[in-house]
Amino acid sequence: MVTAHVIPLQNDTFMIAFIFPEENPKTKRLYTPSPSQFDIDRRLGFVRKQYVQEKLCKWLHQRAHARKDSIVLINNLDYGLSQFKNRPFVETFQYVARKRQEFESIAPSSDSSRCFAYYRDIILKVLNFCTEYREEK
């Protein structure tokens, strides 16, 4: 999941950079100032929400092509995610956690699928993050 690299500065300010799971570790990071820990938490939540929505929406569109028999379910999940674009990140994570079984029901079925690696490496981690986040709250 998206993490933040935080560098404390003088007078209770920070520099922050977001690190994405599929990012090359050698990539130069862009640091931006942050006035407080609260601001860091808020921004990290926002970036994580964007990441979750982007990855799941793109994956749902791919699954719509692969699973024509589940198009109604896929459209419902996509519509549900779209309803959280302007909502707090907590609500987005809770929605994904509640619908986890439905997301998993349209997943590629085995390692033989071309899309299984993406599901295992990205989508499953997103689903796990949302489930763990929901359980913590």
Brief overview:
This protein has one domain.
Q: Which stretches are low in confidence, meaning pLDDT under 50 for 5 or more residues running?
A: none
**Judging from the principal axes of the Cα atoms, what is the shape?**
elongated
**Rg calc:** 17 Å
Strand order of the largest sheet: 1-2-3
How much β-strand is present in the residues?
A: 5-15%
Tally of strands: 3
Structural class: mainly alpha
Report how far the terminal alpha carbons are from each other. Answer: 18 Å
Task: Give the SSE order as H and E letters.
Answer: EEEHHHHH
Number of helices: 5
Account of the 3D structure:
With 137 residues, the chain is mostly helical. The chain has one domain (3-136). The chain contains five helices and three strands. A three-stranded antiparallel beta sheet has the order 1-2-3, with helices on one face. α3 (89-98) crosses α5. The longest helix is centred in the middle third of the chain and has 30 residues, at 37-66. The model has no long low-confidence stretch (mean pLDDT 93).
